[in-house]
Write a structure and sequence with these properties.
EC number: 4.2.2.-
Distance between the termini: 39 Å
Order of helices and strands: EEEEHHEEHHEHEEEEEHEEHEHHEE
Helix content: 10-25%
GO biological process, one term: proteolysis
Strand content: 15-25%
Shape: globular
CATH architecture of one domain: 2-Layer Sandwich
CATH class of one domain: Alpha Beta
Protein name: Membrane-bound lytic murein transglycosylase D
Structural class: alpha+beta
CATH topology of one domain: Muramoyl-pentapeptide Carboxypeptidase, domain 2
Oligomer: single chain
Radius of gyration: 23 Å
Keywords: Hydrolase, Lyase, Metal-binding, Metalloprotease, Periplasm, Protease, Signal, Zinc
Number of strands: 17
Number of helices: 9
GO molecular function, one term: metal ion binding
Length: about 400
């Protein structure tokens, strides 16, 4: 089994060395001059290593606040700047591009790859990147497998994708995990710090566990350590098995639904559709909903309309629908809301009757600028006549979440 040396800290640069292959997580052409903060070196493994201690940053009782923070940058040098990135097994060009805020097309061009070139799945090489952002590099820790541990349970505990975990360890361990095995885990410091350093959230949002995050895009992504939308007053989960999301999205969703139930005066029940599977990936006919950031919500219906009936314009409570849209907008966490263009007309008319200013309506609605107008939080999308599709932004501690 390979013997790993300790983490080397060069400024804020973390280099992880292996006796056999010298693999490094991140190499920066000009190392930053900052003093290292919040990075602890891995200990040299002993002949009989003790069991891994409980990870206090995954088992806190007060999850972090939902307020966004800017993406952490490594170093003080201006961006963009050239760096060299050493990928890990199962990394993809698309994920590396998201990490550094660049396009996959540019990343391939900088490295002399074909337009559809891919990294080797098990032995990817270094990449030259003109980074536009620089999140902290991944850090290695060693977990001693205990009885009952599985790749899935370890992945959820450390907030990494279980298939990646297997790929990182298949040469030393193989595909079967046995008690006592030394499992190499590459963790995202931003995800770890979100669970360890943030203060408590308010209300029911405080019950949503930390560390659930998105990798990739809503159309081609995964959900890591997903958290489930909890039951609550005023709404019903139609598909509990696909009601999983990121911590950032689910906390904001719960806050918004509770605010709507408390302040709108709507006495009906909101029907929540699909969000994501626990591990993300494709859901039936949906193109998106793959990374825990999208959720469908049926438009509020009028009293006396049966829930089993198809939603038509005359059956919608448009005043309640406006209150729902306004509550999502106030959260500051939503990237876009998809709603059919004709339904936007109805909603806009109701908002005007309620006295909403034209300035505010222009900020929120694509209508009447045309179905393809690049304006407004609420945008047209075919097939969204009777429900809204809410897409949350990437959370502030999701380094490989993209659009």
């Amino acid at each position: 089994m390979r013997s790993w040396s300790s983490l080397l800290l060069i400024g804020a640069l973390v280099t992880v060395s292996a006796a056999a292959d010298g693999r490094r997580e991140l190499m920066v052409d000009s190392p930053p001059s900052l003093e290292p903060q919040g990075l602890a070196p891995a200990r040299q493994p002993k002949a009989s290593p003790p069991p891994v201690e409980k990870s206090t940053w995954f088992d806190i009782t007060e999850p972090p606040d939902v307020r966004p923070r800017p993406l952490t940058q490594l170093g003080s040098e201006p961006l963009p700047r050239w760096i060299h990135h050493q990928s890990l097994p199962r990394d993809t060009i698309e994920i590396v591009a998201i990490r550094y805020g660049v396009s996959a097309r540019d990343l391939r061009r900088w490295n002399g790859m074909s337009p559809r070139g891919r990294l080797h799945p098990s032995r990817p090489g270094p990449l030259r990147v003109r980074a536009r952002r620089l999140p902290p590099p991944r850090e290695q820790l060693i977990h001693i497998a205990a009885k009952g541990d599985t790749w899935d349970s370890l992945g959820r505990r450390h907030a990494v994708f279980d298939r990646h975990l297997q790929a990182w360890n298949k040469d030393e361990i193989g595909w079967t995990l046995e008690p006592g095995e030394r499992v190499s885990v590459w963790v995202e410091p931003m995800v770890r710090d979100a669970a360890r350093d943030e203060g408590p959230a308010a209300g029911r949002a405080a019950l949503i566990p930390p560390r659930a995050h998105s990798i990739g895009t809503p159309q081609s992504g995964r959900l890591i350590a997903g958290v489930q939308v909890p039951p609550g007053e005023g709404y019903e989960r139609r598909y509990p098995n696909s009601s999983w999301g990121t911590t950032f999205a689910v906390r904001h969703l719960v806050v918004t639904l509770d605010e709507f139930h408390r302040t709108s005066g709507y006495l009906g029940t909101l029907m929540l559709g699909s969000m994501s599977f626990r591990r993300g990936g494709k859901i039936g006919p949906h193109i998106s909903h793959q990374s825990g950031r999208d959720i469908d919500i049926r438009l509020p219906i009028r009293a006396g309309v049966r829930a089993s009936q198809p939603v038509k314009p005359e059956s919608v409570d448009w005043a309640a629908a406006w209150e729902l849209i306004a509550a999502f907008a106030r959260s500051g966490a939503v990237k876009v809301i998809f709603l059919d263009y004709a339904a936007q007309r109805e909603l806009l008319g109701e908002a005007r009757r309620l006295g909403v200013s034209e300035t505010r309506l222009a900020e929120l609605f694509q209508f009447p600028g045309g179905r393809h107008a690049n304006r407004g939080l609420v945008r047209h999308s075919p097939g969204h006549e009777g429900h809204i599709h809410v897409r949350y932004a990437c959370g502030p501690f999701e380094p490989v979440c993209g659009d």
